[in-house]
Amino acid sequence: MPKYYARTFLPWIVLAVVSGFDGQAGAVAGLVTALVLLGQDLRQGHRADSLILEISTSVYMAALTALAFTVPGSPALDYGASLAIGWLAITAWGTLLLHRPFTAGIARRQVPAEIAATALFVRINRVITAVWAAGFTVMAVVLGLVQHWAPDATALLVAVKVAGFTVPAVFTARYPDRARGRHATELGQPVAQAAAQPSSR
User: Fold this and answer.
1) DSSP secondary-structure letter at 71?
2) End-to-end alpha-carbon separation of the chain, Å?
3) Burial, 78: exposed, middle or buried (Cβ in 10 Å; 0-12, 13-18, 19+)?
4) What is the average pLDDT across 122-145?
5) What is the pLDDT of residues 58-93, one digit of tens each?
6) Within 13 Å of residue 200, how many CA atoms lie on the same side as its CB?
7) Three-class SS of residue 123?
8) How far is CA 7 from the centre of its chain?
């Protein structure tokens, strides 16, 4: 699962790195990376609900590229990092409001259909998606403040991004086992039996 998330966020990493040299080139590089990854997933037959982040990323990169070339002097481009993470926050909260937590689509790639159909699976992914949404929201706000008050504080910007992605990622890796353990305890089942079940993340 960590490998999947790293691949999913690759366009954002490319955007951040290349934009450090040229904003327009960064937008194009991010868009090309997003489209290539989305195309690969579609050719492999992945369901649309497992590609929410990829689709959302492609839409954002297309809009950013259009803005970068049509209005290159736009003040919005000075807040690229916070706007990008803010877009991810909107995407994550939106999937929760639509009762389609984006992590559920990702997790379905890893578990049998009978596990994905359980209420526990859905509940776990609602919680995980909420944590990612909250993390993106906090990160977007902090990045916006830093970009406004200390735009040249590169180390601080990087630290905020690392923390903002690391905390939800660690939670994603650990929470499912804990949730299954509590569920097994409530049902009077051995915790070891629950831990042996396929991952719900």
Assistant:
1) S
2) 8
3) middle
4) 96
5) 999 999 999 999 999 898 888 988 999 999 999 999
6) 29
7) helix
8) 10
